[in-house]
Amino acid sequence: MRIEENRSDVKVKVSNESKRKRRQKKVSPVQRLYNTCKEVFADCGPDIVPSPEKIQTLVAVLDKISQADVDLRPNMLFFDGNRAPIITYLQLHECDKFSIGIFCLPPSSVIPLHNHPGMTVFSKLLFGTMHIKSYDWLDTKDKGDANPDGVAPVANHSNSYPDGLRPAKLKVNSEFTAHCSTSVLYPTDGGNMHCFTAKTACAVLDVLGPPYCDPEGRHCQYYFDYPLTDFPVDGVPVPDEEKDGYAWLKERENPEDLVLLGAPYDGPKITET
User: Is the pLDDT of residue 156 over 60?
Assistant: First the structure.
């Protein structure tokens, strides 16, 4: 009997230990996202893109995150269409390697065309319908720059371009509805300059690697876009039948009508390690 009692004690201890380990292994989706970002961006920096395997790992984690995982609902005040179109940013984490945050857009609000210098950016639409328009530069400023679609680089004829204009290739011009796949843009490809227009209330989970940093020259620059045919010049080798897929971009001042406010993130917290 004494042996049987000892065996019972062992079973209880094993059972309790198993439960404790299961509790330890249960990680919230946002914590898993943070842990994955630490691994993916560990050896990265400006203009250094994670490996394809690491990119797919992070995309897989983002694809599984839902609005419930970050405690957001379309009926929250952030998304009220009856007030001025104020866009709210909820910051979950930021370090020198990457940032995690959520843009909350009420209906009809717009994040104007802007760039992501030297960054790899992952965007997950948590809910809503959004129109996205994005561009990549057609020419290259530096010999080391990669050109969109792997096409041979087009020489930079910036001296012959109309004042302040630079040609760009249209990458995306479509509406997206949750739960679409996570999108990824790169320093010189994938639509590095994009514009978001909320067709309904929208929430976008964004991961930037590395984040914006003015002292390091990674500031957010906004642009106007114009049809390529508005300023015909030599040195832009685009066939007439394809010119709708290209545009001139021109830097602009920060848009006065863009109201972007920060607010506390009240969802599940991240434990920084």
Answer: no
